[in-house]
UniProtKB/TrEMBL annotation:
This is Polypeptide N-acetylgalactosaminyltransferase 9. Residues 118-302 form the Glycosyltransferase 2-like domain. It holds the Pfam family Glycos_transf_2. GO terms for biological process: protein O-linked glycosylation. Keywords: Disulfide bond. One of its GO terms (molecular function) is polypeptide N-acetylgalactosaminyltransferase activity. PANTHER family: N-ACETYLGALACTOSAMINYLTRANSFERASE (PTHR11675), POLYPEPTIDE N-ACETYLGALACTOSAMINYLTRANSFERASE 9 (PTHR11675:SF28). InterPro entries: Glyco_trans_2-like, Nucleotide-diphossugar_trans. It comes from Meleagris gallopavo (Wild turkey). GO terms for cellular component: Golgi apparatus.
Amino acid sequence: MVRLCYSIFPTKLQLLTSHTVIFPAWKTNLNHSRSADALRARARLAKPMGLVEGPGGLGQGGMAATLRDDSHESETKYEEYGYNAQLSDRISLDRSIPDYRPKKCKQMTYTDDLPQISVVFIFVNEALSVILRSVHSVVNHTPSHLLKEIILVDDNSDNVELKFNLDQYVNKRYPGLVKIVRNNKREGLIRARIQGWKAATSPVVGFFDAHVEFNIGWVEPALTRIKEDRKRIILPAIDNIKYNTFEVQQYANAAHGYNWGLWCMYIIPPQDWLDKGDESAPIRTPAMIGCSFVVDREYFGEIGLLDPGMEVYGGENIELGMRVSKKEDTLCNVYLQRKMGACGPTELLPD
């Protein structure tokens, strides 16, 4: 999973990269027609909204991108979003990103009977192009028989663009696949995730911030681990997307831990994992990051979901990680799947 990081501004943007599709997204959209008429219709939908679809253009291959005409509008969007939203608008929703998975991950095969997944994105006043790039990347890189639905939870955004334009786009572009849940008041990240869980209908649910890009083969490792043991929470590996250039930067494989201030942080993987010499193996981890995780829907309900009394992010992942570890269930980092980085998942495992 790729993670977009804001440096000067308080917010942090995280982007995911999954690995499921072999050919460029614009050629291999797994759920939709590739006819010339369909492509022209999509262009007619995207262009009036200032969006770019298809191959080529700025930022392809996860390369750094810049604009020659940086303006006052660009600075205003920096202040509003904490990242270069004007540049994001010029980058294709279907851009390619590098596949950083280890060689062994790329060679793995999976059974045909994996459970379906509902992908839940949470947002409030996010840039439209960033949200839709998250949606495009998960559609482009998830086999259609595994992707049951995409649920967009709008936590009472003020941005008018996220009302009419977003509704019009997803209803025409992905009819029946994308659902929008709108909160009538600002609930906060934790309760918004719970709303997404309530709307989900598939056996497995993935929760993500709405500023992510998935890469090839992201979903199969997570679904495989959960099929083996439903009491696992899977954490995709995360890479970084720079807030100003949207360049994809690889992160080293890591486990998750937390400091005395109870902030989640990356830590060196356990020695037993390092001794295996197998980067495709899941990493046992005592903690989890909250921006991306995959879990069995019913199991998540059985353990009490997230604490609805929490008003802001930063504690729910620590509390959930402790709860799962105490139950001797499993949190696992899987590096076979990568939201812009890493090949196998990480799982929270008991000692």
